[in-house]
Amino acid sequence: MKYYIIAGEASGDLLGSYLMKAIKKQDTQADFRCWGGDLMEQQGGDIIKHYKDLAFMGFWEVATNLRTILNNIAVCKVDILLYEPDVLILIDYPGFNLRIAAFAKIQNIRVVYYVSPQIWAWKKNRVHKIIRDVDTMITILPFEKDFYAKYNYEAHYVGHPLLDVINNERTKGDLRAFQVNYNLDDRPIIAVLPGSRRQELKKILPIMVKIIELFPEYQFVMSKVKWLPLSLYQSQIKNKKITLIEGDTYSMLQHAKAAIVTSGTATLETALWNVPQVVCYRSSFISSLIAWIIVSKDVKYFSLVNLILNKPVVSELIQYECNLKRLKKEFEKIIHDNTIIESIKNEYQHLYHILGDAGASDNAAKLIVKNDIR
Fold first, then answer.
1. Distance of CA 354 to CAs 16, 139, 160, 278, 342, Å?
2. How far apart are CA 344 and CA 318, in angstroms?
3. Do 206 and 239 belong together in one domain?
4. pLDDT range class, residue 348, cuts 50, 70, 90
5. What whole-number distance in Å separates Cα of residue 1 and Cα of residue 29?
6. Residue range 112-125, pLDDT digits in tens
7. What is the CATH number for 61?
8. Burial of 5 per CB tally in 10 Å (0-12, 13-18, 19+)
9. Strands 277-281 and 256-262
């Protein structure tokens, strides 16, 4: 079969690559054409557009790049027609992917959505577009199946693919090898995950790195995105003492005592590595104002960890609360307060249990390859 896959972010590239690997087990003749990244390319995908050219954060940022986005949509539609896929697989990225779903439906192309948009948090009216245009919805968060059931629409919950990803990495590497590889000393490691978008680095990273000089007893290690230039990081870090690593995020988390994380999939990854964390997020004033207006008042939390557990397990510093004073206060809790640290880790175990067993990628692949699931 021919599979056309669209992922618009780094997390989508990761999950998409594992899905492709699982599909190849089910369909040895699988052919992939993708909008994604390096990981999907490594699985044999013919990459049309890299997600680095697609990832725009915030309402204002999307508006100012609207011409580029609309041009990408037009290019995608033509490319789909030329490729003539048996199935279109959409991974999150709703502003783009829901438009492509509507187009594919008109063309009588089977549409599978893998990783549901977070419409339960904002823009709930999008559920009607999904019901109309998406043949198969595959969810990775346990409460999403019930959300769709309220609209008499069947969603297939397969578990969370990050369990597959992280279980695959758990036995790799030891602390001493990690220290030697990156010229680290014996001080405890603090992981810094500033996100994968330029806007995130510019808005959030300067606040994150200010904390380094306040805690000289720790060494800070930051995950760098391969496709973003080193100069972008250096301009935000300036002369702060921090070690940059590339393509080795899980080794960093495996050996970290605590973490400072930009909200997103990384918060869940950090939790599954059992690392206490403080979650940070800032966007432009206009984007934050729009979000405040349209985000469902039923949604109490920002990070995936707190959303899934439905309680404030990790501290969330959002917008103007994301400042050095608050970050220092919350960071001290997760490195010095053993009661808080133990509580967080206990909740992480509950989170792991809620997400279910490993095998999400294989479960999703079976649904996708099986043609009669529509």
1. 22, 14, 10, 21, 19
2. 19
3. yes
4. very high
5. 6
6. 999 998 877 666 77
7. 3.40.50.2000
8. buried
9. parallel
Q: Is residue 374 part of a domain?
A: no
Are 180 and 244 members of one domain? yes
pLDDT at 61: 54
Residue 185 φ/ψ, nearest 5 degrees: -100, -160
In angstroms, the CA 132 to CA 126 distance is 10
Crossing angle of helices 10-26 and 162-169, rounded to 10°:
90
Q: Which residue has the tokens 């220092």?
A: 328
Q: What is the mean pLDDT of the chain?
A: 87
Gap between the Cα atoms of 206 and 295, Å rounded: 27
C-alpha distance from residue 155 to each of 85, 145, 218, 219, 330 (Å):
23, 5, 45, 44, 38
What value does the mean pLDDT take over residues 252-260? 96
* C-alpha torsion sign, points 179, 184, 188, 193: negative
Q: What is the DSSP letter of 225?
A: P
pLDDT, tens only, 260-316? 998 888 999 999 999 999 999 875 444 444 444 444 455 577 788 998 898 999 999
Give the domain extent around 55. 2-160+359-369
Residues 219, 182 contacting (CB under 8 angstroms): no
Q: How far apart are CA 280 and CA 260, in angstroms?
A: 7
Please say whether the beta carbons of 43 and 21 come within 8 A: yes
**Domain presence at residue 305:** yes
pLDDT band at 33 (very low <50, low <70, confident <90, very high): very high
Domains in the chain, number: 2
* Most confident region among 98-102, 197-201, 224-228, 298-302 by mean pLDDT: 98-102
How much is the pLDDT for 252? 95
Which tokens belong to 294? Answer: 């349209």
